[in-house]
């Protein structure tokens, strides 16, 4: 080959950064680079198998589908070759010169962070191939595509550049020739490689030959009967399919013949990588037909909100030569998706019943996905609602209960399910919204995540009972028993007369202007002097909190409209009625402060500077430094 044929290229900037992380921070668990390369080889073989079902392939049609590994422990060279789909020159350049993800600074920071924490996490970022530089001084990738075009060689030492040059005489597939670093010579030992294959790649569905000997057992575990499979085998398979090192939290292995022939083996992992800050997960379940991979990380086989599951679904009813594009609207695939989703939901409901504590752990980690399901998957919304868990006024702090439990102990005459959103249990319990619930002994859900309000709003009702937020303006609670209300009246003393209240409300509305739609006498405040409530049809306080936090204020064109309720029995309100007459300016300050306090209790923002100034005025007044206005 002449020098003129060798082209030197720069890695994309992001790729260089990834290489830098791989080379400099990932020293532990080096073994995984072998797993990454073997799994790339297996993917390439799967892709070829799939292609050959769709197209009639002439070139190298009879080359067997396999992975061969050679170890040269004299020259310290490890070679991993497959007879898979291969790569064209353009594919080589895109696949091994750039990173598929849109590279942002944040992404690389996350990657570096993940690399420090747990080397297994790098698989989640798709830096698979580059992990070879943990052990390699120099790497050559020789490849020829299934279409029979020219062969090419990619070579790099993991620095800033790589070369591309023609490579004649290759068969279909890819060969990776790795010159090992001085401290990584062990990877040219047949024993090391055999051990790693046994550990990580036993389930690769093609023969893996080390020095001519097949070292893996090629099997499709999901087609075997449950009673024949040990827990260890299940866990090993999970690690293989999920690229994981932990044990799964749950596993579901089931077969069905009607309405479709299905063999499915799916797992719930222990960790939620999205919560760990690693961006959106890709779906983790692969679709097979008669043990042939049809769609890896399938987006079609389960709804998006179930993307945290890992595993395999095999249905022999699907046509083998179905193309990936046509999966999306294939009637059989849609049916399969329906059956699977229902089965997974049923499984989770059974697990919740069987071991409630374990289910709570699951809920803490993956509940967010089920909430996403409630808001996005209309078809399964009602079934999914059974799986929701929240704290409530009747639950122990930190313990969550189901909607069924709530409904099971609803009071006579109660036909609604109540909830209130807040930043913490303490904030909710000391807030004004739950006072009447406590007094009347009506249970109320405490929804402590900002998104919860949105979820319950979407759900709308459960078991025919409306779900109602306690900060709504038009809330009417079931009547209390006469004994309870008498006791309440005794505690709080005489309320302000109705006429005084009406006039006070009107005046307070004048003071507050457009910030409030109406000031009203409250029928449900017990101790607190005032609270902010949401007018039906407008944005709720928790929606407003979410939008403000994300920098959007005028979303959905809904705007926000609030009422303020005041408590006619509260000493502060009673005194305010008098103060209004004797010291109007001071009374105005008190109204403003009442409003700000109520806003804060609703979790909404107020202007801190204005509030602090006013607060000082009030303090000066009560400490007697300012004489009352004449
Ligand atoms: N042996 C191979 N044969 C054909 N193509 C390959 C081979 N190895 C890698 N590739 C191509 O290079 C791409 C990049 O590989 P890399 O391992 O970095 O990421 P990935 O396989 O897409 O993601 P991950 O390893 O995280 O699953 C692959 O998607 C594939 O297209």
Question: What do you see in this structure?
Answer:
By secondary structure, the chain is an alpha+beta fold. The chain folds into four domains: 3-214, 2-Layer Sandwich (Heat Shock Protein 90), CATH 3.30.565.10; 221-360, Ribosomal Protein S5, domain 2, CATH 3.30.230; 388-485, 3-Layer(aba) Sandwich (Rossmann fold), CATH 3.40.50; 498-622, Up-down Bundle (Four Helix Bundle (Hemerythrin (Met), subunit A)), CATH 1.20.120.790. It has 20 helices and 22 strands. A nine-stranded mixed beta sheet has the order 1-6-5-4-7-3-2-8-9, covered by helices on one side. β18 and β19 form a beta hairpin. α1 packs parallel to α4 (105-117), α2 packs across α5 (190-200) and α18 packs antiparallel against α19. 37% of the residues are buried. Residues 482-490 have low confidence and may be disordered. Bound molecules: adenosine-5'-triphosphate. Residues 36, 40-41, 44, 82, 84-87, 95-96, 123, 126, 128-129, 174 line the site of adenosine-5'-triphosphate. Adenosine-5'-triphosphate is lined by residues 36, 40-41, 44, 82, 84-87, 95-96, 123, 126, 128-129, 174. ATP binds at residues 36, 40, 82, 87, 95, 102-103, 124-129, 174, 324. Residues 546-630 are annotated as: C. Molecular chaperone. Has ATPase activity.
Tally of individual domains = 4
Report helical residue fraction: 25-40%
Using the 3D structure, state the CATH architecture of the largest domain: 2-Layer Sandwich
Structural class: alpha+beta
Q: Going across the major beta sheet, what is the strand order?
A: 1-6-5-4-7-3-2-8-9
Assembly type:
single chain
Mean pLDDT: 87
The shape, in one word, is elongated
* Percentage beta strand: 15-25%
Bound compounds:
adenosine-5'-triphosphate
Subcellular location: Cytoplasm
GO molecular function, one term: ATP binding
InterPro entries: HATPase_C_sf, HATPase_dom, HSP90_C, Hsp90_fam, Hsp90_N, Ribosomal_Su5_D2-typ_SF
Region (A): 1-324
